[in-house]
Amino acid sequence: MTNIQELTTNKQKGFDAQKPPKQELIDACVHCGFCLSTCPSYRVLGKEMDSPRGRIYLMNAISQGEAPLAEGSTQHFDSCLGCLACVTTCPSGVEYDKLISATRHQVQRNQPRSFPDLLFRQLIFSLFPYPGRLRSLLFPLYLYQTLGVQKLVRSTNWLKLLSPRLAAMESMLPKVTLDSFRDNLPDVIPPVGKKRYRVGVILGCVQRLFFSSVNQATVRVLTANGCEVVIPKTQGCCAALPEHQGQTEQAQALARQMIDSFEGTEVDAIIINAAGCGHTLKEYGHILEDDPEYAQKAQEFAGKVRDAQEFIASVGLTATLSPLRDEPLTIVYQDACHLLHGQKISVQPRQLLRQIPGVTLKEPMDAALCCGSAGVYNMLQPEVADELGQQKVNNLLNTGAELIASPNPGCSLQIKKHLRLQGKDITLMHPIELLDYSIRGLGIRL
């Protein structure tokens, strides 16, 4: 790993003039070090330059022309998970989220990648933000899993020898079921009983294909509590993955498409059930602030976005909740970083789960520590992600809970992977699915 002294020996290019990290935000850091204990990359790597404080030092050095924006500095920005735990912890209110976002867009524009790195990133950003392209892979993946090829690949370990990143991607592959091939939610779903609100629902990319049950549960919970649900079929990706990795033009194009898809729907709120997506949707005003046609639209759109749990907790449940089984059920809720740190939503999911009769909620150690998923981080930085995933699963299991509630598809895939690697068979569900089961009076078999 490089350090500041090594970087300053080579005064090459710095940040360009297009939205570099703001100096006033850099200067807000007093270098107290409170962020170090909560930073997952610092915990694993143990290097100052892989902490928020170290990265801010580096941003300042590049901004002042004392260090180059080069491969040596880029690796430290790449090691950041973007979990935003440091933002929650910082006593000085440093807006590290804005700093790392601006820096990543600078890196994407100005720092060439190695060919293998560029190729892998191109694969990710040409595939994951496009549900139609993902859908074309469903049948091959279904055969890959059902014919036993996946079992063979994982038992031989040859893929990891060929490419640790490809192996990490394969290890995260969710189970493809017949539900993955269905996309049968209507454009408009009426409420059950008296209409209280008219809301839009965003389906997501990975969510709509591999976690379609979560979308279906979300619609049922909303309609059961007096919401008319609108689902525009022209919606695409929310832009979270490209935005978090500095893909400026792609993120902006996807944001415009999403805004256009909801134009004229006259909804009271726009509901999202994936934590990372929700954080980006609420940032549309920032993403499109320089677009004269969309800046105002983006602000208005972002102002309507609500996480599903946030919205339901705020408007209140009107549907009757039933026990999930005859005997008490212990659940551990897993905080998704972009819900906890990005959107400041922590109490609401717990409040909703506690309203289900017979549920006891457990709290894990280090609840605020990232699980290592962080969008596509677990594919780009698999070694760090694996250590964090193992820690997270250990902490969840140590609660003795019988079921894990996870509000984000990336977190769910990461946790399921490390449960499998540890040989643990424990049910994992989205909190909205648990509310849906409770409202419908369905029992859960563990």
UniProtKB/TrEMBL annotation:
Catalytic activity field: (R)-lactate + A = pyruvate + AH2; glycolate + A = glyoxylate + AH2
Query: What InterPro entries would the database entry show?
Result: 4Fe4S_Fe-S-bd, 4Fe4S_Fe_S_CS, Cys_rich_dom, Glc_ox_4Fe-4S, Helical_ferredxn
Q: What is this protein called?
A: Glycolate oxidase iron-sulfur subunit
Provide the 4Fe-4S ferredoxin-type domain boundaries: 19-50, 71-99
Query: What is a single molecular function from GO for this protein?
Result: 4 iron, 4 sulfur cluster binding
Q: How is the cofactor bound?
A: Binds 2 [4Fe-4S] clusters.
Top enzyme category? oxidoreductase
This chain's function reads:
Component of a complex that catalyzes the oxidation of glycolate to glyoxylate.
Task: Please indicate which superkingdom the organism of origin belongs to.
Answer: Bacteria
Q: Which cofactor does it need?
A: [4Fe-4S] cluster
Alphabetical keyword list: 4Fe-4S, Electron transport, Iron, Iron-sulfur, Metal-binding, Repeat, Transport
Keyword NAD carried by entry: no
Q: What is its EC number?
A: 1.1.99.14
**Lineage, opening ranks:** Bacteria, Bacillati, Cyanobacteriota, Cyanophyceae, Coleofasciculales
